[in-house]
Amino acid sequence: MDGDYLIPANSKKSMLILGFFNWIDLIIFGSGVVLSLILLMAVKSSNIWLMMLVLSPALISGFLVLPVPNYHNMLTLLSNIYRYMTMRKQYYWKGWCIKNGSGK
Predict the structure, then answer these.
(1) CB of 75 within 8 A of CB of 28?
(2) DSSP assigned state of 69
(3) How do the pLDDT tens digits run along the chain, 104 residues long?
(4) What span, in angstroms and rounded, lies between the C-alpha atoms of 26 and 61?
(5) How far is 41 from 70, CA to CA, in rounded Å?
């Protein structure tokens, strides 16, 4: 191969747990599930809306660690959207064809 190296497109995937999760993802999901289990044991009710409220920490944390194409997961996507919406949107060109400030 004349010294050429072939790097697979998913080479970073081997650094993830089960190919999808970081440690922080597992901590977020685990804490949501544990909180929901504690609430399920503490709250005794037959009201469907109350049970949905009790299960909401597990559902929300599961949604945040859900894998998304072109991003790591929903948490990364939402943080990128938030960062884009709140940061400065005026970009200054400093390329190779312009001198700093003179424009000539």
Answers:
(1) yes
(2) T
(3) 566 766 666 666 666 667 677 888 889 989 999 999 999 999 888 889 999 999 999 999 999 888 888 777 888 889 999 999 998 877 776 666 655 555 55
(4) 10
(5) 38
- Token pair in block for residue 81: 């959207």
Q: What is the pLDDT of residue 69?
A: 80
Identity (one letter) of the amino acid at 6?
Answer: L
DSSP label of 71: S
pLDDT of the residue at 8: 61
> Which DSSP string corresponds to 85-102?
HHS--------TTS-TTT
Beta bridge partners of 17: 21
Q: CA-to-CA distance for 64 and 58, rounded, in angstroms?
A: 10
- Pick left, alpha or beta for residue 18 (phi over 0 → left; psi -120 to 50 → alpha; otherwise beta): left
